[in-house]
Every structure is written in C-alpha cells, then in structure tokens.
C-alpha cells in the first residue's frame, strides 16, 4: 500500500515512524528519507540553542550515535493535516541520554510526506 492509498493522517504517521526507525537503528540514510533535502531543525539541548539541516543531523548525529538505549521509548502525540501540509508531535525518552519533545512540520512532496522542519527541546 502506498501512502496515497490510506488516510493522510496515517501517511504522516508513517513519515514520523520512518524517522524513528532511522534514529533507533543509527541509520542516516533512513533518516534522510524521512526529511526533505532542504529540511531545517532548531531547538534546545538543555539551555544550548542549536540548529542544523536534516541531512546534517543524519550524518553528524544519527550516524555517530551510540547503540540504542534499551530504555528508548517514543509516542506520537498528535498529527494534523491540512491539504498538503501537516504537523506532528513526537515525544522521545532516552535518546542520546535525554528526553525530547519534537514538533515536526511536513509537506506532501510528489505524493510523499517529508519532514521539512523540526523544532525540539529536551524535557
């Protein structure tokens, strides 16, 4: 089943699940598939403000991360779709030694939902 063959909300969840699968497996190529080529992320690691591109995050963070913490958990709290744009909130526990609240912006690009922005903070 392709993303176009089920609800837009389910397809957006699939895009977030692709991101989660990539970070859990330390697989930068999977994470890159979840992001658009020009995706940007901003946020806070503790009190430190950071920003980088989605592909840079995949190459510099995901690819060099330690093995998955057995305590890692995640939950997709919400998904909203309005035409060709969407938002989703993802909570992660025990990723890279911290808990994260991620707010994603997604755009439907050539029939596939891609993460175009990520705003995050540690909790």
What does this protein look like?
- This protein has 123 residues and is of the alpha+beta class.
- The protein has one domain: Nuclear Transport Factor 2, Chain: A (Roll), CATH 3.10.450.
- Helices cover 27% and strands 50% of the residues.
- The chain has three helices and six strands.
- A six-stranded mixed beta sheet has the order 2-1-6-5-4-3.
- Strand 3 and strand 4 form a beta hairpin.
- Helix 1 packs antiparallel against helix 2 and helix 2 packs antiparallel against helix 3.
- The chain is globular and about 35 Å long.
- InterPro entries: FrzH/put_lumazine-bd (IPR039437), NTF2-like_dom_sf (IPR032710).
- It holds the Pfam family Lumazine_bd_2.
- This is Putative lumazine-binding protein.
SSE blueprint and pairings:
Blueprint: H1 8-24, H2 28-34, E1 35-45, E2 48-53, H3 54-62, E3 73-82, E4 85-95, E5 98-109, E6 112-122
Parallel strand pairs: 1-6
Antiparallel strand pairs: 1-2, 3-4, 4-5, 5-6
Helix pairs in contact: 1-2, 2-3
| CATH overall fold name | Nuclear Transport Factor 2, Chain: A
CATH architectural name: Roll
| N- to C-terminal distance | 36 Å
Low-pLDDT stretches: none
Continuous helix count: 3
Give the C-alpha Rg: 14 Å
Task: Estimate nothing, just give the exact number of structural domains.
Answer: 1
In spatial order, strands of the major sheet run: 2-1-6-5-4-3
- What order do the SSEs take from the amino end to the carboxyl end, as H and E? HHEEHEEEE
Average pLDDT, rounded to a whole number, is: 94
Note the beta-strand portion.
over 45%
Pfam family, one: Lumazine_bd_2
Protein name: Putative lumazine-binding protein
Organism: Leucobacter komagatae
């Amino acid at each position: 089943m392709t993303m176009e063959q089920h609800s837009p909300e389910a397809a957006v969840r699939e895009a977030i699940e692709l991101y989660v699968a990539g970070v859990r497996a330390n697989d930068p190529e999977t994470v890159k598939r979840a992001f658009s080529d020009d995706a940007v992320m901003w946020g806070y690691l503790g009190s430190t403000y950071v920003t980088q591109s989605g592909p840079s995050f995949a190459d510099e963070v995901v690819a060099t991360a330690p093995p998955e913490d057995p305590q890692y958990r995640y939950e997709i709290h919400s998904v909203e779709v309005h035409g060709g744009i969407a938002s989703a909130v993802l909570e992660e526990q025990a990723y890279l030694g911290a808990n994260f609240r991620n707010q994603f912006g997604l755009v439907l690009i050539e029939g596939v939902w891609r993460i175009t922005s990520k705003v995050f903070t540690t909790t």
